[in-house]
Amino acid sequence: MTTNRQFRLARRPQGIVQRSDFDYVAEPLRDPVEGEVLIQVLYVSLDPAMRGWMNASTDSYMPPVAIGEVMRAIAVGRVVASRLAGFAVGDHVSGLLGVQAYAYSDGQRLSKVNPALAPLPLYLGALGMPGLTAYFGLLDVGQPKEGETVVVSGAAGAVGMLVGQIARIKGARVVGIAGGADKCRYLVEELGFDAAIDYKHEDVAAALKRHAPQGVDVYFDNVGGDILDAVLLRLAHGARVVICGAISQYNNMSAVQGPANYLQLLVKRATMKGVMVADYYPRALEAVMAMGGWIRAGQLKTREDVVAGLDTFPETFQKLFTGANNGKLVLQVAG
Ligand code: NAP
């Protein structure tokens, strides 16, 4: 049989992830045992959460990846050998397959995907975990109403670009916050956002005053830090702040910058609530049907940033933190 190639966590990264934080190893493959499938990994999803999984902290929603363990990641692949009822050779599947060329699975949290219905990378983006996060985080937690102003940060990324478009579909005014003129232009000209703020070159507070003169009714926060603080100062009465993530803080979780302006929640009778996508997996079909319908109808655009080569994993992963990714970042392992 062929050889597997795997990225195993070698040490806990300090700051931005480096190649030396991993061992890139070759492992002989074995046949699957009874109750197992062997999957050839085709596309690996690179998600900001993976940075948190590399830390030692135990007070998270998932245990850390152990030193020496294959780096945890969602991926899609093709079954190449099966001794598990319900999974046949040739089936395409999605699950926590890891940053590796082949993965074994006992079928737990493994779901089938259909490449005839959508390109495989889409199952890691709009039709996968980021899509569910955007859909339920915005609609269940944010609850935007027609005519309200929705602000989303990380707006040109996997989750953010969907949040903004769903908010538009629901009749809200949408302001995106993203890094750089190109991303901001993309949001307004291609995705139909009402306005975009380039936080790398603009004063976010002043721009928010211009673009959200009546205040922000829903803020979908992907980045935390200074941007969260700036938006808190512009909340409308009864605003809802959805805490989806805080990527500006992920490379130094021992000194997380909390929101200094949180008393605005009191003044504006606002709420701030976290969203955890895993809570919504039982309702996944609802989101996938809605997103699929909007994509087919041309109302929702998707964008996948597919980088070829398993061996590029550490450098490709860095793109999430430098902002070099355009849309959902995916590593192509095989085609
Ligand atoms: P993404 O937006 O596709 O990629 C990350 C983006 O973050 C980068 O492109 C960059 O865009 C921006 N960024 C990086 N460092 C930043 C900084 N210091 N300040 C401001 N922006 C920064 O990633 P994603 O997969 O969609 O994830 C977005 C957020 O959602 C993350 O916080 C993630 O942890 C969270 N998330 C949460 C859940 C949940 O269940 N709660 C599920 C999925 C994702 P710019 O070029 O615009 O800077």
Question: What do these coordinates show?
Answer:
Helices cover 25% and strands 26% of the residues. Strands 3, 4, 5, 6, 7, 14 and 15 form a seven-stranded mixed beta sheet that branches. Strands 10-9-8-11-12-13 form a six-stranded parallel beta sheet, with helices on both faces. It has a two-stranded antiparallel ribbon with strand order 1-2. The radius of gyration is 20 Å and the shape is globular. It has two domains: 3-125 and 302-332, Medium-chain alcohol dehydrogenases, catalytic domain (Quinone Oxidoreductase, Chain A, domain 1, Alpha-Beta Complex); 129-278, Rossmann fold (3-Layer(aba) Sandwich), CATH 3.40.50.720. The protein is an alpha/beta fold. The mean pLDDT is 97. The protein binds NADP nicotinamide-adenine-dinucleotide phosphate (NAP). Residues 47-49, 129-130, 133, 154, 156-160, 178-180, 183, 222-223, 244-248, 275-277, 320-321, 323, 325, 329 line the site of NADP nicotinamide-adenine-dinucleotide phosphate.
Q: Which CATH-level-2 architecture of the largest domain?
A: Alpha-Beta Complex
Strand content: 25-35%
Biggest sheet layout: 7 strands, mixed
Based on CA atoms alone, the radius of gyration comes out at 20 Å
Q: What is the highest CATH level, the class of the largest domain?
A: Alpha Beta
Oligomer: single chain
Throw out a few tags for this protein.
335 residues, alpha/beta, Rossmann fold, 7-stranded mixed beta sheet, 6-stranded parallel beta sheet, 9 helices, 25% helix, globular, binds NADP nicotinamide-adenine-dinucleotide phosphate
